[in-house]
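Hello everyone,

My group is preparing for a crystallization screen and wants a predicted model to guide construct design. The compound we'll soak is zinc ion. Before spending weeks at the bench, it would help to have a computed complex in hand. I've included the protein sequence and the ligand's SMILES below. Output in structure-token form would be ideal because that's what our pipeline reads.
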Amino acid sequence: MELKHATQNLNEDSNWPITTFAHRACFAAGCAAVLFSIAKSLLLMNAAVAPQPWLESTIAAMAAYLAADLGTGIYHWAIDNYGSAQTPIFGPQIVGFQGHHHRPSEITKMHVVYNVYITAAAVAAVAIPINLLCSDPVLLLFVGVFAGCVMFSQQFHAWAHTPKGRLPPLVAAIQDAGIILRRADHAAHHRAPFNTNYCIVSGVWNRVLDWSKFFVALEVVVAAALGHQPRSWSNPTSDWTENSAMN
Ligand SMILES: [Zn+2]
Ligand SMILES: [Zn+2]
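Reply:
Good plan to model first. Here are the tokens for the complex, ready for your pipeline.
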């Protein structure tokens, strides 16, 4: 299956990438995997002999929501700071995120399918086998909520760059409530010192991770163990700042 990159497949009217059948197939597979996890969990809980695990499932769903925010922060930190276009598997995402720092508003012009198809493919690859093999409703709900939050994290990120007046009212409301990433919280990621606010589901972890210098500590460990310095230690004007001429 070929997944064409933005520069290879542009909409002639807008110059923004169009979605291909492969993009839409990945999106559909990711959505199906998430819905299957949640539906199977609810059916198993409903069929369970008392006591039904509603409390455990609610805790699992909350834990999944929190874990997804933390996971996107660690992944975003890693691809922002390490690797290059030549890095196997992750090279296109590394290039994409560096391009996002130069052209942050571009993400708001992409179709939701284009924003999430890569994570949707990963979600489908991991969640579908779990769905088929697992019969634990608590674990299935954890998987469904975690996968759904991770899959749509790039869209939450896109909405965090979208002016409030252009957001659907429901999206603006859940953003203002802090359920998904707030615009003001994510704006700090694009300001000096360019090494904070990496989490992009709800951003609930950003304050504690930045306050505790969690990522700085990880960077020191990686530099000591592997000899690789993160991009955030270099001159920020070169790699991290918005380039209005490129917008
Ligand atoms: Zn970034
Ligand atoms: Zn951003």
